[in-house]
Amino acid sequence: MEMKSALDVNVEQVEGIPGVTVRWLWIATDDGPTFSLRLFEVEPGASTPYHQHAHEHEIYILSGQAILRGESQEHDFRAGDTALVMPYEEHQFTNTGPKSLRFLCAIPQLKQPLNLTAQVSLYPLKQESLSPAIDSALVIFRRQGLDVNPGPMSTLISGDIVDIFKTLQLAFEKNAQEGGDLVMSVTLSNACPAIETKSDDAISFRAIGRVENEFEEPVSPNTMRDSPSRIIINPDLMPGLTFLESGNRVLVVFYFHQSTGYELLQHPRGDKSRPKRGVFALRSPNRPNPIGVTEVELLEVDNNILAVRGLDAIDGTPVLDLKLV
User: Fold this and answer.
1) Mean per-residue pLDDT for 201-214?
2) From 3.10.20.310, 3.90.1860.10, 3.30.70.930, 3.90.550.10, which CATH number describes the 115-189 domain?
3) By 3-state DSSP, what share of the chain in percent is helix, strand and coil, each rounded to 5?
4) Cβ atoms of 316 and 142 closer than 8 Å
5) Strand, helix or coil for residue 185
6) Quick check: pTM over 0.70?
C-alpha cells in the first residue's frame, strides 16, 4: 500500500490549453497495474479540448461546476457528480462557475503500442453493389486516424491494435444496421506493413482536424454552405489558432476522402446536358489530387472547435490547413 499528498505531485500545464493543469497522481512508474489517476484543475471560463480516446474515462467532480459537452448533448455537472465517457466518445469540460473546477479522471494504463495491419474485405449479402458498404467502411477507417490503402478486392488498414479492433467493430455495426446481413473477412498481421504507394514525387500531408456537420453524404454545395459546420482541430495544434477570432474570413483546405478516380474532362456537377469541361476548370471532387478549398466565415472559436458557415464539405472530411483571407 502506498500513500501521497496530491498537492505534492508536480502540476503540469496542459500543452496548448490555457487555464488547464493536470497532476498525474498514480502512473505506470508507481507500479499501478491497471489504471492511471489524474487530477485536473480548470480555471473559470476555461475548457479542456474537445477530443476522444481509444479508452474509457471515469470522472469524479471534486469542486466547482461545469458543462460536459458531447457530440449530441450537454450535461451540467457539480461537485459530487461522476461521469463515464466511453471509448471514442467526443467530450469536453467547460468551467461555468466562478471558482476553479477540480476533477479526478481515471484511465486504463497506457501500454506499449502494438501496431497491426489488417486486410479487410466486405460482402453485403442483400445488396446489388458492394460499393456503398465499402465506401462507408473507408470513411470510418479514415475518421479513426488509421493508414488506409484501398485495393480492388480488399483494403489494408494499419494502426494500433486497440484502434484496429474498435474501428472494425464500428464499420461492421454500421453496415450491418444499414444493409442487413454482412460478411467481413479480416486477416491480421504484426509483421507485414501496409503497402506503400509512394513514388519519387509523392507528397504526404497530416490532417490538422476534421469537419463535423449533419451531412453524411454529399448534397448540393449551396445547401451545405448555408448550414453551419464545426471544424475540430487536433488538440496538439491549438496554439496555431492564436488570434483567430469570430468574423474572420478563412480559407479551409480539405481532402475529398470519398473521391475515387477522376477524368480530365467532366460534365459540371455530373449534369450530362452540359458540355464537358477540363477538371481544372471545375470544383469537382474527382480530380488528380482530391483537395478542396472553400472560403468560410468564422462564427466562433471555442478552444479547438471552430464554428463556421460556408463550408461545402461533408461530415468527417479531413482538414489539411487554414489560412486567413
Assistant:
1) 84
2) 3.30.70.930
3) 20, 40, 45
4) yes
5) strand
6) no
Helix (H, G, I), strand (E, B) or coil at 275: coil
Residue 240 one-letter amino acid: G
DSSP states of 228-280: EEEEEE-GGGGGGGTT--TT-EEEEEEE-TT-----SEE-GGG-TTS--EEGG
Task: Output phi, psi for 184, to 5 deg.
Answer: -115, 120
Confidence class for position 139, pLDDT limits 50, 70, 90: confident
**Largest interatomic CA distance in the chain:** 78
Measure the N-to-C terminal CA separation of the chain; round to a whole number of Å.
Answer: 59
Cell of 61: 467532480
Domain boundaries, the chain: 8-108, 115-189, 209-324
pLDDT tens digits for 60-87?
A: 999 999 999 988 789 999 999 999 998 8
Tell me the pLDDT tens digit for each residue of 208-223.
999 999 998 888 888 9
* Helix or strand run (H / E) with residue 38: strand 35-42
Nearest alpha-carbon partner for 250 in 297, 310, 306: 297
| DSSP H/E element including 324 | strand 318-324
What would the grid cell of residue 57 be? 474515462
pLDDT at 30 over 80: no
